[in-house]
Amino acid sequence: MHMTHPHPRRTVLATAAAALAVTGALLSAPPATADGAAPAEVSPHAAQTIDDIGASGAWWVNDLQHFAPAVQARVARLLFSAQGLDLSSYRYNIGGGGTAVTTPARAAQDFHTPDGSYDWSKDKGGQTFLKYAAKYGVQDLIGFVNSAPAQWTTNGQSCGGQLKPENEGDYAKYIADVTAHFAKQGAKFDYISPFNEPDNNFGDCGQEGMQVTVDQRDDIVRALGAEQQARHQRTSIIADESSSTVGFSTEVPQWISQPDTAQYVSKLAHHTYNNPNDGQLGNVYETAKTVGKDSWATEICCFGKGTTGWNQEYDPTIDNALLMSRIIYKDFATSHDSAFQWWVALAGGYGTDPTARNDTGWNDGLIYYDPDYATNGNQTLYFTKRYYALGQYSKFVTPGSVAHNVTGAPSGVEVSSYDRDGQWVVVVNNQNTTATSLNLHFNSRTPLRAARAVRTSATENWAKAAAPDVSGSTVSASLAPRSITTYVLDQKARKDVNGGKRHGSSTPVTGALRGDQSGKCLTADASGAALATCTGGAEQTWSYDAKGGLRTANGYLTAGSSGPTTTAGFTGSPDQRWLLNANGQILSEASGKCLDVSGQATADGSRVILYSCNGGANEAWSRV
């Protein structure tokens, strides 16, 4: 973290289609529930597989090394055990030595000595919690670097400089040596991030950090990748950890397209400090599809005062926790990231009061400690609702969980759904100040049973909540005001024809797709796609299935170089697979681009194309 403080139009393609009048985004639901509201829909089609959910061990470990061993052990349990957050990833900060860094706690020690040898006794606090993470079996251990050792930077400092090109090989060997050392200690890094927020220069020296220009990022990746390959190290590289999604979407395609670079990159990493809108989050998905790598959201913190944008504030209440949960929801449901990693797990900057909101602290930690511990001996831990909010995901959405989009949720309610080993995990944010009813339909032929409900609210922390009612494939619940609730639903396995068990049979959902801006329906044939007045014809009735296919009477919607058309058969290729997002975006899995009405036109015959997502109403589609 850098903490300072016009398209051509065409004729109408086909007549119409009817629609089933419901509210919310995308395709039809089963009959309305008793209260008259159509249920929200869990997509039959899988969006992405979740790799991990975690947090970083930067900075606070330099303070916690001075705490009593019993307190350190308690912190490890709170972060890594099943009774705590049960984090499935942990980011270990490989220090750069802290030369010229003005904040002592952000001056992480490095292991490299001037004569080229290593002092593995350094970074005692960091090593302590890395080893705890390994002991608890955290799935993904990630080593990330803010700055190379100062002797290899252009200004001889751990901040404000750049890695000297002539030392890129030395730096790669250093990281590989650190990786090898910790592997022998039982803490094998699964991923390495060789630079962090490379778009920042960190010239204020409030923390470690080095700028890495776009034309150097591929050089560093290749140097490290080749070094690891030569040593047969099975540690993957993630990059580039841009501080904003705009920088990520603009710059990643530039450096990763350089010869022999992409082969070394396992995951694409971005931060979200620009408070991205839905269009910018859609661009993350487009970037990932363009490059052919999954994207991870690897850092965020420090939002507040009622928004998800950067603000100085300390707020341990449910209000900030709900903002955090909204960010997680959008990362998984809009940019379709495969991981979410919070910034620092612990912090000392609570300002004037660890138990109450104030404008002098920061919302960067999950748990807080007294910054004056060294003089007053206070080693008390102070919990924020953010800790419990993250746990509503991390304790249940485990590695390998498969995300399914949810459309048509009530206003103020955000729902994400995951298929996990034959169970459904549903995380629901109720941003409303009043209790809100949720009816959620699963497009599954497999019977459901409510197994568990856990809630965090203004007065509750991971409290047992009332189980939802289940009728067929529809789940109904009353959501407490300003709350985050996780529901676990069992699916009864059914025997297949060979005597084995299966869980997954699903039914397509059908209906018409109406543009929010135009009020006209999507219609398409082999010559292209366009808007047309909604009239009830089969040509506008779309069926969406578990394979991601969108089919009408004219065939399957298929992405092409000149725009979407329909083709007769389904091949399973990405150009025939689509994601229907809760915000109304329809994304092509081939390109990551949005189904868009060219030029924001609204007349019959207006051309429907694929275009980079921008969050406009001409890219939003609803059920009619």
Would you mind describing this structure in some detail?
The protein is α/β, with parallel strands linked by helices and 624 residues long. The chain folds into 2 domains: 51-394, Glycosidases (TIM Barrel), CATH 3.20.20.80; 509-623, Trefoil (Trefoil (Acidic Fibroblast Growth Factor, subunit A)), CATH 2.80.10. The strands form 10 sheets. A 10-stranded mixed beta sheet has the order 20-19-23-17-16-15-1-18-22-21. Strands 10-9-8-6-4-3-2-11 form an 8-stranded parallel beta sheet. Helix 3 links the parallel strand 3 (89-94) and strand 4. The longest helix is centred in the first third of the chain and has 17 residues, at 168-184. It is globular, with a radius of gyration of 25 Å. Residues 2-29 and 494-504 have low confidence and may be disordered. Residues 507-624 form the Ricin B lectin domain. InterPro entries: 6GAL-like, 6GAL/EXGAL, GH, Glyco_hydro_b, Ricin_B-like_lectins, Ricin_B_lectin, TAT_signal. Pfam families: Glyco_hydr_30_2, Ricin_B_lectin. This is Glycoside hydrolase. One of its GO terms (molecular function) is hydrolase activity, hydrolyzing O-glycosyl compounds.
